[in-house]
Design a protein that fits this description.
13 helices; transmembrane; membrane; globular; transmembrane helix; mainly alpha; 283 residues
């Protein structure tokens, strides 16, 4: 969804248009979550788990907004590469605690990820590129940190997690619009109905796809497919709609990050009973 929003936002300059798109997409995401909440009960858990849920939702919403901000300055491919490293970074606490022989696989994925980031960091820095990289790193750090709260919210239904995250994103996009736009009422009085409809429906489809995919993901492979899909979509959208030049170093970084994320996720999946025998090499 963020790659699609970036394509639309680059058709017009300035910050006003991207803020509008983020708000419209947030509305679509929120409506989509409400649609998926049939039969939701009051979330179980202690006050600590509920506080963790609130904090996790705010951090996720800020991570989404930071990734969208990175796309103002970075290419679609570079932004996807940096933000895809979060899947590996979330495994660092486990890497520090495990002492099994196969834990070296996590070290391999971390090395691949660090090499990819190094390639991007030492590549040609055009105007605005350092700021874009900073926003992408902020998004990655927030997303990786909020994953540390997952054990505290493990008993929460998926619909509850999505509801809090979508509401936080809607609130954040509304505040950004009020802060960055001279006349926030233009969100509705001067709205491009075609763009608003397309963007909100894209947000609706995104959250519906994510919620249904998570429900059907009995094996835990959704993260691996998602990270690979993000990078592939970034290449495809860049070629089809923007045709911006992509440096060879970006291709190399993308390949390294996807490989590192895949190795990291396979090691996590190997610990599940469904795939213990199939992926025992990674245990």
């Amino acid at each position: 969804m963020w790659t699609f929003l970036a394509v639309l936002s680059r058709r017009q300059g300035g910050f006003t248009h991207p803020v509008k798109l983020l708000f419209y997409a947030s509305v679509g995401v929120f409506v989509g979550v409400l649609t998926c909440m049939t039969g939701m009960r009051r979330p179980p858990g202690t006050n600590i788990s509920k506080a963790s849920l609130l904090l996790r939702s705010l951090m996720t919403a800020c991570a989404f907004a930071s990734r969208f901000a990175s796309l103002w300055h970075l290419s679609l491919v570079d932004s996807a590469v940096v933000t895809s490293t979060s899947l590996v970074l979330t495994r660092l606490p486990e890497l520090a605690q495990r002492r099994t022989p196969r834990s070296c696989m996590l070290a391999v994925s971390l090395l691949l990820t660090a090499t990819a980031l190094g390639l991007l960091a030492f590549s040609d820095m055009s105007e605005g590129r350092p700021e874009g990289l900073r926003w992408a790193v902020v998004s990655t750090a927030l997303h990786s940190t909020q994953q540390l709260l997952s054990p505290a919210t493990a008993g929460m239904p998926l619909s509850v997690l999505l509801l809090h995250t979508s509401f936080a994103l809607l609130l954040l996009s509304t505040l950004l619009a009020a802060y960055l736009m001279e006349r926030p009422e233009k969100l509705f009085t001067e709205a491009d109905m075609g763009t608003m409809s397309l963007t909100s429906h894209m947000g609706f489809a995104y959250v519906y796809f994510v919620s249904k995919g998570r429900e059907a993901d009995v094996g835990g492979l959704a993260n691996m497919y998602k990270n690979s899909f993000d990078v592939i979509i970034a290449f495809a959208f860049n070629k089809a709609f923007l045709d911006e030049p992509v440096a060879a170093i970006s291709y190399a970084a993308a390949a390294l990050v996807v490989t590192g994320a895949t190795v990291s996720e396979l090691q996590r999946v190997a610990g599940l009973s469904h795939y213990r025998k199939r992926f025992r090499f990674f245990i």
